[in-house]
């Protein structure tokens, strides 16, 4: 049905539900790909590369929606966020180009260790991200932010799991942002990294556009609701959600590593 063998109305409905949930989670703390991408990988007739490309299309709509929602309600330093997003876009394209030759099986353990570090660091610092305490100003703030965008943007292009969490913890610990501010800035940068990957995948003809756009509508709805929830509930809620999502990512990646997925 609809150009993909095995994609019936029930399967499509479940995909849209997964996309909505992914948009909500991604808007609050990042990690929505943990829900949407595995759902796409189970669609008969869809190759892994097509799933990755289509996932990015669906995700970017939700990310842009949540970013716009945050921009209207949370103070964002656009002079820092926009150049960082632009650099992250380029870094993501470079990372995606490199993705085809890197031994991913060797990198997964490093991702798990990094996520464990994020989890332990957040648990040991209960006051982390409660208030905004800028660590830098002016040029130093911009350079630090650009460094974060370059490194994590490149990582998102190569692999991607945990990008939102890595962005948030870097901005909280290195820039002194609160959880809410870090989330708002992370959505802007994450939207740019998604767009970078979409450009590369599109040039390669890997994207199933109609499916990606359908998922994008559901992702937008989830992203809007998630951003509104995070803004209403505040820093404490975002911190708890980040701990939950990072823990789930660690478990999933560990399972993939053990099973050879």
TrEMBL record:
UniProt entry keywords in alphabetical sequence: Cell membrane, Membrane, Transmembrane, Transmembrane helix, Transport
Highest taxon listed in the record's lineage: Bacteria
Keyword Lipoprotein: no
Membrane topology, record value: Multi-pass membrane protein
TM ranges: 51-71, 80-99, 105-124, 136-155, 161-180, 187-203, 236-255
Pfam families referenced in this protein's UniProt entry, alphabetically: TauE (PF01925)
Cellular localization per UniProt: Cell membrane
Designated name of the protein: Probable membrane transporter protein
Species annotation: Rothia endophytica
């Amino acid at each position: 049905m609809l150009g993909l063998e095995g994609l019936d109305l029930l399967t499509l409905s479940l995909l849209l539900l997964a996309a909505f949930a992914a948009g909500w989670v991604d808007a609050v703390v990042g990690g929505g790909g943990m829900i949407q991408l595995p759902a796409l990988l189970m669609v008969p007739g869809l190759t892994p590369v097509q799933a990755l490309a289509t996932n990015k299309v669906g995700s970017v709509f939700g990310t842009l929606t949540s970013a716009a929602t945050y921009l209207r309600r949370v103070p964002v330093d656009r002079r820092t966020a926009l150049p960082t997003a632009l650099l992250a876009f380029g870094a993501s394209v470079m990372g995606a180009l490199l993705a085809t030759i890197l031994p991913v099986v060797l990198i997964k353990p490093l991702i798990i260790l990094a996520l464990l570090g994020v989890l332990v660091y957040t648990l040991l610092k209960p006051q982390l991200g409660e208030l905004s305490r800028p660590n830098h100003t002016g040029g130093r703030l911009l350079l630090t932010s650009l460094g974060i965008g370059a490194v994590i943007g490149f990582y998102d292009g190569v692999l991607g799991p945990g990008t939102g969490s890595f962005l948030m913890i870097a901005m909280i610990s290195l820039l002194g942002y609160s959880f809410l501010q870090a989330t708002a800035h992370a959505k802007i940068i994450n939207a740019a990294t998604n767009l970078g990957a979409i450009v590369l995948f599109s040039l390669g003809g890997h994207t199933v556009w109609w499916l990606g756009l359908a998922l994008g509508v559901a992702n937008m709805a989830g992203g809007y609701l998630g951003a509104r929830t995070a803004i209403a509930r505040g820093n404490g809620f975002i911190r708890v959600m980040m701990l939950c999502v990072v823990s789930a990512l660690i478990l999933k990646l560990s399972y993939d590593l053990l099973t050879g997925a």
